[in-house]
Amino acid sequence: MSEGTGDTAAGRHGRSLTVLLVDDQTLVRSGFAMMLSAEPDLQVVGEAADGRRAVERARALRPDVILMDVQMPVMDGIEATRRIVAEGLGRVVILTTFDRDDYLFDALDAGATGFLLKNADPDQLLDAVRAAGHGNALLAPEVTLRVIRRMTRGNGGGTAPSGAPPSGTSSSGAGETHPELRLLTDREREVFVLMGSGLSNAEIAATLVLGEATVKTHVSNCLSKLHLRDRVQAVVLAHAAGLIPQGE
Question: Which end of the chain, C or N, has fewer beta carbons within 10 A?
């Protein structure tokens, strides 16, 4: 399954994005189900109360997005995410009460497309589901800077792109510390910078006056040439290489 290209069935055919809810608290699942079901483009197709059941339900339902809690009995959300991503069963957005770095980085290392806290605004949750369903990534604003800082210090785990430059790298030295950047064409580099700024394929297309299909191809080329798994890694690398202005 291609990461970060927006090539989902929902994106191609305009149907509702299907969502699997995973949380060990029935009231939490019910609340999220009511919120999501009120949206015409989102459809809750199943629920699970633990990680093992989540994997089973994902295999049976093949949802576009799985909203995944972390602390659950039988199998936690991190291990469930790792198995779901490995089998290409859907894109996972971690939704947890606990703002802990180990949860954050373990989730990203397992392949989660997004990470949000349960106290997020409803609109932020809906945006995260839609972003994940269309192949984009979304991190809670309060954790994004922590991800970038950890990766640029070079002490991150599997989330860090290989060869990520150290802290303080400027855009002029990006090619030296991460030589794969030199493999990008001028247009791919433009797309990569906009992707690193958090823009979706549609927003990149509007900015560069290109078709979305063309942008999708450029995004895929960037991820492939730079050996990146998804847009989360692209954002990290773009900031680490000094391609994104500080504070953006």
Answer: C
Who's near 193: CB < 8 A, 6+ residues apart?
238, 243, 244
Which CATH architecture does the domain made up of 155-240 adopt?
A: Orthogonal Bundle (1.10)
State the helix-helix crossing angle for 231-240 and 186-196, rounded to 10 degrees.
100
Cα distances (angstroms) measured from residue 233 to each of 69, 135, 144, 210, 244: 22, 13, 12, 24, 14
Task: Give me 107's structure tokens.
Answer: 């989730």
DSSP assignment of 38-65 equals TSTTEEEEEEESSHHHHHHHHHHH--SE
Predicted local confidence at residue 197, as pLDDT: 78
One CATH from 1.10.10.10, 3.40.50.2020, 3.30.750.24, 3.40.50.2300 for 9-139: 3.40.50.2300
- CA 69 to chain centroid: 16
Q: What is the pLDDT of residues 96-111, one digit of tens each?
A: 887 787 888 888 888 8
Q: Domain ranges in the chain?
A: 9-139, 155-240
CB of 139 closer than 8 Å to CB of 114: yes
| pTM, entire model | 0.67
- Residue 201 to residues 149, 163, 181: CA-CA distances in angstroms? 25, 26, 20
CB 241 within 8 Å of CB 165: yes
